[in-house]
């Protein structure tokens, strides 16, 4: 979810007043309040008592109270990605209401534990704290939690990488199932809280995220993207999905049919929601429908029950639904069906039980409990990944003097979907608790900016407008410069320790605790000029919303006050370096036995919702800092604290040890120290491939991982760190791999022994590879994993069930999963590139038959293609192929037998064009040309026919498009 931009919150205050009015007490005798009755009977009773107007009002995110029945308001959506985060803006300032409770590692870190049992405990803690907040203020803190995010991390540049779990669907499914199960609790009839999976479907880019279409051919859809959602829903570990902003195969996800997909994966009712603003995008940026009535009707028919739109104002949604009813686009039965799904959730949350159900007595005192702090520390520890440890650099000796260096050493950052930290244990704090002696520095330059004999001066205390004022450079004239890469810096005022921001959209103020907010107005660039001066450029996000003109450069007026202007009119500053961050870091490193350099990202700057990354590099200044410290003290350990793969090739070559962690919450410092000093043995594993510097990644908008060779599944590039990578302070041996036929598959077992001197966890990973196939197969694919703990000398036989059905592929010739006859490698190891034991099994499947194109075949079921994209056949359902001149699709292994004489193609086109039928290749023998006349629009379908010649026997058939058109199906006639 995102907030509206700019956030329109005027309606919040009015609704907040309405929500705080207590509903009248209803008689307890209503059957719907009797928990001894069957659930469906209770739902039917309440549904029958609601008026049509009341039902329609409940289709908005903010469901109003029904006083006459004693029913209070209900709000969908509390963000809870890695702890209770925030609720929609209804405070007195119209701002996000942010929780202050237990913040666990970011989602990609939770998955990095490879420990579903632990993640389930984290989910339980989050669900419990959500209940605690709900007990304090149920009108703000709803119990439908918008988490987890299960979108696959197929591209490491995705701005929301920190929110997902993995590039692998099996691992994503296991972790999301664990987190969702923990949130829900184990009661069979009631929910502690209600997890909602985000964002259905194929949502992995922020650039033009509401207008781009994710083109998913059937194999990618069914083998890759769907399993990420299906696993948790099939396990009953989620109560609905949130639709994504993007389009999928040309159709907005907001109206992609959920009834024929997600609702078929579970026997539980689901309550599905739109993402924020999604309903209005249908008539706005997407221009998919002419009226909001049509859009609303399509959403409800597609299976969306809650409209997250117009902030707290439900009136536009109510009006649109009423218009849809009056126009016959919806029936009252459609409304009843949607409200029935809403009620199924509200009942399971215990809302209508007299005692609130089994979780109804949880109170606010559960928030930030000692137990949750302990769990947060353990989780942050298990999530950390040891990337390199040459020469047993780690663990450190407590007797050593440590130089703790780096821009992230003294701080902890939160992210967009994080709650506020109730306390902070920084990396420096954690190391200080262990080391005999420490010396520390952030390693950042401290500067002053002067022009015309006056220095840029900040305020003290809460901060004040910056202006050219003082004639000497004291604390109020000095700023620490933090480098986040690609020229972006933040300026922290020495006067009060707060960051400079353009928070009031006009001048600059030193008033922010950290870079934050939707627009992130704490970003600047210091641009050196040929004459030796420096321009200060504002570089905040979303400058298109800036109503102060096109200028982004700081200019000081005659009285010293600041504004923005163009580069040519900007003030030219003399930049004075008060102290050099690298010089201080080098001095500290030379004075110590070991240097620990803490570098990484700022979650609001280095990619975030609505902003993809353009680089995977570590910030240039941070890279230089590490290299200088290492040159001064070869015994250097790098702690890399960020949320995504980073191309740290030079660090991998030079420094002896690298430890990676996500932004891991208040206990980050303790967790890092536990690992650095050996109290904990690292066992976190990467859930994504970390590419090498210079690796060419596919277009971020190309979702075909098979065609592009993306992720560890299909890439043949040698990565910097492979999927599943992670080191330990001990060693493990693998022996006696067996794959024994059992029932409907195999039992794979391997003996794992701790051959080192320390107790530790090993993440045992099972992969397979299919030798022969009709289609391109993964290089290897994760089929199972277990995190096992072993003391020195201890052995354990680790067993994995492997069903034959797990080895199935999506057969586009018959639109179903099938298992081919083939030999499969059984690969077990500690990472996808560290296979320790191998075996093979011969699987007796079924041969995929040759294609019969005399039957009508969907164009989208091609075997290969060039350039085309999948589009919507109609606005309600179906996929077609959208093509322009020179693009093609291919159908392989077609058996025409004695021959065919004609071809028919279902087409839609706005202008005349043609399709060539070629054999063997896109430039092969021309068998016929199909003329295509304009049909009157892309949804106006017609048939185009033509004779073909010399088409008999077996061929690969290519349809080569010679103009702009859509094709939905093809068939040949004898």
UniProtKB/TrEMBL annotation:
Q: Tell me which positions the record assigns to the signal sequence.
A: 1-26
Superkingdom in the source lineage: Bacteria
Q: For this UniProt record, give its keywords in alphabetical order, as a comma-separated list.
A: Hydrolase, Signal
Task: Check the record and name the CDD domains matching this protein.
Answer: beta-trefoil_FSCN_BglX-like, CBM6_xylanase-like
Q: Does the keyword Ligase apply?
A: no
GO MF annotation list: hydrolase activity
* Record's keyword annotation contains Nucleotide-binding: no
Q: Where is the CBM6 domain?
A: 854-973
Family designation: Belongs to the glycosyl hydrolase 3 family.
Q: What is this protein called in UniProt?
A: Glycoside hydrolase family 3 protein
Source organism per UniProt? Streptosporangium fragile
């Amino acid at each position: 979810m995102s907030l509206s931009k700019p956030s329109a919150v005027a309606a919040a205050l009015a609704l907040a007043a309405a929500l705080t009015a207590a509903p009248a007490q209803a008689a307890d005798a209503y059957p719907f309040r009797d928990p001894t009755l069957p659930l469906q009977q209770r739902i039917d009773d309440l549904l029958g008592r609601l008026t049509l107007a009341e039902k329609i009002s409940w289709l908005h995110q903010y469901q109003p109270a029904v006083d006459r029945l004693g029913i209070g308001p209900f709000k969908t959506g509390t963000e809870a990605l890695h702890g209770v985060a925030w609720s929609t803006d209804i405070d007195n300032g119209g701002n996000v209401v942010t929780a202050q409770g237990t913040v666990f590692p970011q989602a990609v870190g939770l998955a990095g534990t490879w420990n579903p049992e632990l993640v389930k405990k984290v989910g339980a803690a989050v669900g419990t704290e959500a209940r605690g907040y709900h007990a304090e203020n149920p009108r703000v803190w709803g119990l439908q939690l918008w988490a987890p995010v299960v979108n696959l991390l197929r591209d490491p540049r995705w701005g929301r990488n920190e929110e997902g779990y993995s590039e692998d669907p099996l691992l994503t499914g296991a972790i999301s199932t664990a987190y969702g199960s923990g949130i829900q609790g184990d009661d069979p009839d009631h929910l502690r809280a209600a997890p909602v999976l985000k964002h259905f479907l194929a949502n992995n880019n922020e650039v033009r995220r509401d207008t781009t279409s994710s083109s998913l051919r059937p194999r990618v859809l069914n083998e890759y993207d769907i399993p990420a959602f299906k696993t948790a829903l099939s396990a009953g570990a989620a109560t609905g999905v949130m639709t994504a902003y993007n389009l999928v195969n040309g159709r907005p996800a907001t109206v992609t049919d959920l009834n024929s997909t997600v609702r078929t994966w579970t026997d539980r009712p689901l309550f599905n929601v739109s993402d924020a603003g999604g309903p209005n995008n249908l008539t706005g940026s997407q221009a998919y429908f002419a009226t909001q009535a049509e859009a609303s009707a399509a959403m409800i028919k597609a299976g969306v029950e809650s409209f997250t739109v117009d902030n707290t104002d439900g009136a536009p949604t109510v009006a649109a639904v009423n218009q849809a009813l009056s126009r016959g686009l919806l029936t009252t039965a459609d409304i009843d069906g949607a409200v029935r799904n809403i009620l199924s959730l509200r009942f399971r949350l215990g809302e209508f039980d007299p005692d609130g159900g089994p979780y109804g007595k949880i109170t606010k005192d559960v928030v930030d409990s000692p137990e949750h702090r302990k769990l947060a520390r353990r989780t942050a520890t298990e999530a950390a990944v040891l990337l390199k440890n040459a020469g047993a650099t780690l663990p450190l000796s407590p007797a050593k003097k440590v130089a703790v260096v780096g821009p992230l050493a003294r701080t902890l950052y939160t992210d967009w979907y994080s709650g506020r930290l109730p306390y902070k244990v920084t990396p420096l704090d954690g190391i200080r608790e262990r080391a005999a002696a420490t010396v520390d520095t952030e390693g950042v330059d401290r500067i002053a900016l002067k022009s015309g004999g006056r220095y840029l001066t900040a305020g003290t205390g809460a901060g004040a407008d910056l202006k050219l004022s003082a004639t000497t450079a004291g604390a109020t004239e000095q700023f620490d410069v933090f480098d986040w890469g690609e020229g972006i810096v933040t300026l922290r005022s020495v006067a009060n320790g707060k960051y400079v921001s353009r928070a009031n959209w006009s001048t600059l103020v030193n008033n922010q605790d950290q870079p934050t907010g939707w627009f992130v107005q704490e970003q600047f660039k210091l641009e050196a000029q040929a004459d030796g001066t420096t321009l200060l450029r504002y570089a905040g996000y979303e400058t298109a919303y800036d109503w102060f003109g096109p200028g982004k450069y700081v200019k000081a007026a005659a009285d010293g006050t600041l504004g923005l202007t163009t580069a040519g009119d900007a003030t030219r500053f003399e930049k004075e370096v008060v102290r050099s961050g690298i010089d201080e870091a080098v001095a500290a490193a030379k004075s110590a036995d070991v240097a620990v350099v803490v570098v990484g990202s700022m979650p609001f700057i280095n990619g975030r919702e609505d902003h993809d990354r353009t680089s995977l590099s570590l910030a240039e200044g941070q890279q230089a800092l590490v290299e200088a410290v290492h040159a001064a003290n070869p015994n250097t350990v790098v702690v890399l604290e960020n949320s995504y793969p980073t191309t740290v090739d030079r660090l991998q070559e030079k420094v002896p040890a690298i430890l990676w962690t996500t932004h891991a919450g208040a206990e980050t410092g303790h967790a890092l120290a536990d690992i650095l000093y050996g109290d904990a043995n690292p066992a976190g594993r990467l859930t994504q491939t970390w590419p090498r510097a210079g690796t060419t990644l596919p277009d971020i908008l190309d979702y075909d991982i098979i065609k592009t060779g993306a992720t560890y599944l299909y890439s043949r590039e040698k990565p910097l760190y492979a999927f599943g990578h992670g080191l330990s302070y001990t060693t493990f041996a693998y022996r006696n791999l067996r794959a024994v036929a059992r029932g409907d598959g195999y039992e794979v077992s391997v003996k794992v022994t701790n051959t080192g001197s320390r107790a530790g966890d090993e993440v045992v990973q099972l992969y397979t590879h299919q030798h022969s196939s009709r289609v391109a197969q993964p290089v290897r694919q994760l089929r199972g994993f277990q995190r096992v703990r072993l003391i020195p000398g201890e052995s354990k036989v680790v067993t994995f069930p492997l069903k034959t059905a797990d080895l199935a592929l999506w057969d586009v010739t018959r639109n179903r999963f099938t298992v081919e006859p083939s030999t499969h490698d059984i690969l077990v190891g500690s990472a996808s590139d560290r296979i320790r034991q191998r075996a093979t099994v011969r699987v007796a499947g079924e041969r995929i038959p040759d294609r019969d194109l005399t039957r009508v075949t969907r164009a989208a079921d091609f075997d290969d293609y060039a350039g085309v994209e999948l589009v919507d056949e109609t606005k309600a359902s179906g996929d077609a192929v959208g093509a322009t001149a020179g693009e093609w699709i291919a159908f392989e292994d077609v058996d025409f037998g004695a021959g065919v004489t004609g071809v028919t193609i279902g087409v839609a086109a706005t202008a005349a064009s043609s399709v060539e039928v070629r054999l063997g290749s896109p430039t092969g023998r021309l068998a016929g040309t199909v003329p295509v006349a304009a049909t009157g629009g892309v949804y106006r379908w017609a048939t185009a026919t033509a004779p073909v010649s010399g088409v008999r026997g077996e061929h690969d058939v290519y349809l080569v498009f010679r103009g702009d058109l859509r094709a939905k199906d093809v068939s040949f006639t004898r």
